[in-house]
Design goal:
The protein is of the alpha/beta class. It has helices spanning about 10-30, 30-35, 40-50, 65-75, 80-105, 110-120, 130-145, 155-165, 165-170, 175-190, 195-215, 220-225, 230-235, 245-255, 260-275, 280-300, 305-315, 315-330, 335-355, 360-375, 400-410, 425-430, 475-485, and strands at about 380-385, 420-425, 440, 450, 465, 490-495, 500, 505-515, 530-535, 550, 560-570, 575-585, 590-600. Strand 12 and strand 13 form a beta hairpin.
């Protein structure tokens, strides 16, 4: 039989449409931060080279998003348009699951769980969009939107089509069996499927697919190395709840994922107050999965500190609140406008959080774009940068994929503008690898010949690699002369839009202009590297207490160059003079200084 899964007012469902329209706007605006970054930059490059889907570890669910940029290239769309299309494809896929669930399956309850799932515990992962886990979760919710409306499950073609979604989801990520089990158990208790024998079969199919998946994928693969639950269960027994990951998750729930505990309390209060039939078992199931799943992530990643990756793994916790909220709590509201108001508040707050998370990603994209523009003064088209020179205070996001990212960012303007920046921790090894002039280096594998690049999108000219971090003189006598010749170097802040904060880190943008025909060398592998430092002076012209950071030049400066310099405010609020100095570390300051009055607030 068909179960009613419609809300009393269509406006409740419309809030989900509003959420996805905003997410589509974000995906279009931040398309470079999302696509010309990390794995997706490599995926796009692979599409260009091999003209086929880039499916890893048999995670076939990724085809739902990869097909669109591939079709874009095959139809000759401009590279910039394909990058934007790929960014929209992810949100578009989730939006399609929402629309099919709400208007084809007529299950508005599960449909509304889709935008909740993709906002409640999402901030950084919006910009790290490549993971197959959320894509598999979307397939799981599409399956559940069909199954939860049928009780008992009929033996017909409709059920067969839904069952085909189970292996798609399970193969999408090794952890997907757990959220599948949560939904299976929750619906088993909610709809009392005690004699629904076909429903039992769905769980057996999921377990079999999980077993088959583990036997299909080599133990030496990436995910085989990451999912080490059983070994860690033995290693950390019985101290699971004392692992540092538990404290980190609680801190994240207080700062980033604050709506998750709030809604969990709302759902718990609803069950305790309204006491619907079977409420105790469902509440126990929700809390058991919340704690159990969180511990699985903590135990399998006891020392993992990458917030973005952990956020991706914690996504299924959103189901613990999204499903009971949309299936039971919202339908119980006597006045639908209250439900609409609650959802608009939740979506609004989470969308703001997603917007705010763009800052380090946008900084990185802007830096990469600016550096590419700076290199156009040189005859070479391929460049090497030392990772040690970049962002010592980690105010930008870190990436291993700069060879791919820079090729895409430069070629999107014109095929003839293609350039490559290779950021590496081992400059000597890359320099000594003797890469041919008509080839580009890649993070893994041999150099890629220009002949393999699609000429309609990338047409770099033969070129050697130029190192953008060369050292200043290592001899103090030569260094003194070197500094004196560059005494006319000009420093200027681009803008200081707001007061500093006492003891708080702030990025200030500094413009560096060297004297004509003089290069400021930025290499750090020398006894006396060139860095920026700073100090504060009060009205007595005496240095004031402050934590002082040193920041290296990011690249060799031959013409005007702009870079961010991290500065920590003085210990005490007040009015000061900030002095920024260019110095040869372990030697002495240059005769190059910038002094400006600043205000430090508490």
């Amino acid at each position: 039989m068909f179960l009613p899964k419609r809300y009393a007012s269509a406006q409740i469902t419309w809030t989900g449409i509003f959420c996805f329209l905003v997410l589509l706007l974000f995906a279009s605006h931040f398309y470079l931060e999302r696509i010309a970054y990390l794995d997706l930059a490599m995926h796009v490059f692979d599409f260009l080279i091999n003209d086929k889907l880039f499916i890893q570890n048999k995670r076939f669910v990724a085809a739902a998003t990869q097909i669109w940029p591939l079709l874009g290239f095959r139809t000759g769309l401009p590279l910039d348009a394909v990058l934007r299309l790929y960014s929209l494809a992810f949100v578009g896929y989730y939006f399609a699951v929402f629309l099919i669930s709400a208007y084809l399956f007529r299950n508005e309850h599960v449909a509304l769980a889709v935008p909740l799932l993709f906002t409640l515990l999402i901030s950084n992962t919006f910009y790290w969009a490549q993971s197959e886990f959320p894509q598999a979760l979307a397939a799981l919710l599409l399956y559940y939107a069909g199954v939860s409306k049928l009780a008992p499950l009929p033996y017909n073609w409709r059920t067969l089509l839904l069952l085909l979604l189970i292996p798609v989801g399970i193969y999408g990520h090794p952890l997907l069996l757990l959220p599948f089990t949560f939904l299976w158990g929750y619906d088993y208790l909610l709809n009392r499927r005690f004699t629904d024998w076909l429903y039992y079969l769905t769980l057996l199919i999921a377990v079999f697919c999980y077993w088959l998946r583990n036997h299909d994928i080599a133990a030496t693969s990436y995910e085989g190395q990451r999912m080490n639950l059983w070994e860690n269960l033995v290693q950390f027994y019985p101290n699971y709840f004392t692992l540092a990951g538990n404290t980190e998750l609680l801190q994240l729930c207080q700062t980033r994922y604050y709506m998750f505990p709030v809604l969990l309390i709302v759902i718990t209060s609803y069950y305790a107050w309204r006491r619907p039939a079977g409420w105790g078992a469902r509440l126990a199931w929700i809390w058991a999965f919340t704690i159990g799943y969180a511990e699985v992530v903590v135990i399998t990643h006891p020392e993992h500190t990458d917030i973005t990756y952990l956020e991706n793994l914690y996504l299924p916790l959103g189901l613990c609140v999204a499903i009971p909220l949309t299936m039971e709590v919202l339908p119980s509201f006597r006045w639908p406008r209250l439900a609409v108001g609650l959802l608009l508040v939740v979506f609004g707050l989470r969308l703001i959080a997603i917007w705010q998370a763009h800052v380090p990603y946008s900084r990185y994209t802007h830096w990469l774009d600016s550096t590419l523009a700076y290199t156009r003064q040189f005859p070479e088209q391929k460049f090497i940068i030392d990772q040690a020179n970049l962002d010592p205070q980690h105010q930008r996001i870190v990436s291993w994929a700069s060879p791919y990212e820079s090729l895409l960012l430069s070629a999107r303007h014109s095929p003839d503008s293609t350039r490559q920046l290779f950021v590496t921790n081992d400059v000597p090894a890359l320099v000594g690898s003797a890469i041919p002039q008509d080839a580009v280096a890649t993070p893994w594998g041999p150099p890629l010949s220009y002949r393999a690049l699609p000429w309609q999108y990338m047409r770099p000219q033969p070129s050697s690699y130029r190192t953008l971090n060369t050292p200043p003189p290592a001899d103090t006598a030569a260094l003194a002369t070197y500094m004196q010749e560059r005494r006319d170097t000009q420093l200027k802040f681009v803008a200081i839009s707001a007061p500093l904060r006492a003891n708080k880190l702030r990025l200030l943008t500094l413009r560096i202009t060297p004297p004509a025909a003089k290069v400021l060398h930025s290499g750090l592998h020398t006894p006396y590297p060139t860095v920026f430092t700073y100090r504060y002076f009060s009205s007595e012209n005496w240095p004031q207490a402050a934590e002082v950071l040193t920041t290296p030049l990011e690249i060799d400066v031959e013409k005007e160059w702009t870079q961010d310099v991290p500065i920590i405010g003085p210990h005490e609020p007040g009015n000061y003079v900030l002095e920024v100095v260019l110095t040869s570390q372990n030697y002495h300051d240059w005769p190059v200084k910038l002094r400006i009055p600043i205000e430090a607030k508490p």
